[in-house]
Amino acid sequence: MSSPSLTEMPHTRPGWPEILTALSLYMIGVVILGVWMLQIPDEQAILRINIGGAANGLIGFLALFAAYALRIRNLRAFGFRMTERKWLLMAVVIGIAAFGGCFVIEGIYYHFVTEINTQADFQTAAQGGPLSMFILLITGAILTPLSEEFVFRGVIANALNRYGPWAGIVGSAAIFGVVHGFTVILLDAFMVGVLVAYLFRKTGSIWPGVVVHIVYNGLNLLYYSTLSL
After folding, report:
1. Whole-prediction pTM value?
2. Dihedral over Cα of 93, 99, 104, 109: its sign
3. Cβ neighbours of residue 35 closer than 8 Å, sequence gap 6 or more
4. Which residue, 25, 14, 39, 51, is CA-closest to 163?
5. Nearest alpha carbon to residue 156 among 29, 9, 12, 20
6. SS3 for the chain, per residue?
7. How many CB atoms lie within 10 A of CB 69?
8. What is the distance in angstroms between the CA of the first residue and the CA of the last residue of the chain?
9. Whole-angstrom Cα distance, residue 139 to residue 47?
10. What is the spatial distance between Cα 41 and Cα 121, in angstroms, rounded to a whole number?
């Protein structure tokens, strides 16, 4: 039996109260985390990025819980529902394609813009040895995607979908991109945001988007391990 599409879901779904609650808590948490991370010296970059990734995961879980506890208290309404295997397999393919797409985006971007490397900590940790890479994959390719999908698709895209595909897909992707900061990562995040929000709208489930995000982040981290610092 196939999973219901978003248009077939019950009318009970997150709305503006959930968006404002989840996004506000997420942003407050991320700002506090960012200020704390600035206090850690570059010599401890591996510790800094892994604690940051784990903390980001916790922030997302707390933001989702706050939105869940607000009114609806039904995880299915936030996209926690099974979906067909074909969508999960498609998500793997889309995650790989998105990984390739980021090279196109960054190649064009860096042709016109020069900026500091905002991914240096990830690259340092990816090249810190097998244990460092393993921990980085847990924090950066599992916890972070789960956290971000719970907030930006389970709550934000979900709520905005009531206004149509442009709001649900493009609008939520724009918010997702801006939250990542005004660097090339904004464009990468917007691309990924469009893809996973589309999958959420088609399936009503957060899990295809989680798979895309895990594959995309994981491939990027593995790629970072091959770079020269």
Report:
1. 0.92
2. positive
3. none
4. 14
5. 20
6. CCCCCHHHCCCCCCCHHHHHHHHHHHHHHHHHHHHHHHCCCHHHHHHHHHHHHHHHHHHHHHHHHHHHHHCCCCHHHHCCCCCCHHHHHHHHHHHHHHHHHHHHHHHHHHHHCCCCCCCHHHHHHHCCCHHHHHHHHHHHHHHHHHHHHHHHHHHHHHHHHHHCHHHHHHHHHHHHHHHCCCCHHHHHHHHHHHHHHHHHHHHCCCHHHHHHHHHHHHHHHHHHCCCCC
7. 10
8. 50
9. 11
10. 11
Nearest partner of 218 among 152, 133, 155, 93, judged by Cα: 133
Q: Which two tokens stand for residue 95?
A: 């995650």
Q: What is the rounded CA–CA span in Å between residue 2 and residue 82? A: 9
| pLDDT per residue of the chain (229 residues) written in tens, 0 to 9 | 444 444 444 458 899 999 999 999 999 999 999 999 999 999 999 999 999 999 999 999 999 999 999 999 999 999 999 999 999 999 999 999 999 999 999 999 999 999 999 999 999 999 999 999 999 999 999 999 999 999 999 999 999 999 999 999 999 999 999 999 999 999 999 999 999 999 999 999 999 999 999 999 999 999 999 987 5
Q: Which residue type does 58 have?
A: L
Task: Give the amino acid at 186.
Answer: L
